[in-house]
Automatic annotation (TrEMBL):
Domain of life: Bacteria
Species for this entry: Amycolatopsis australiensis
Descriptive protein name: Alpha-aminoadipate carrier protein LysW
Amino acid sequence: MMELTGTCPECETKLAVSDLTVGETFTCPECVLTLRINAVEDGVLVLEMVEKQLRDWGQ
């Protein structure tokens, strides 16, 4: 499988993945942000930050 590259939209770390597809999520190893692969354009990942929903315990 071809290695895909991209840049974290938060910390600008260069990323490379080979076993993920559009719609999947992964964690940036540098800033630990959850990222979703929105598209792949010419082998380059189009990434979006995923908002983590924290549980609201009514506090």
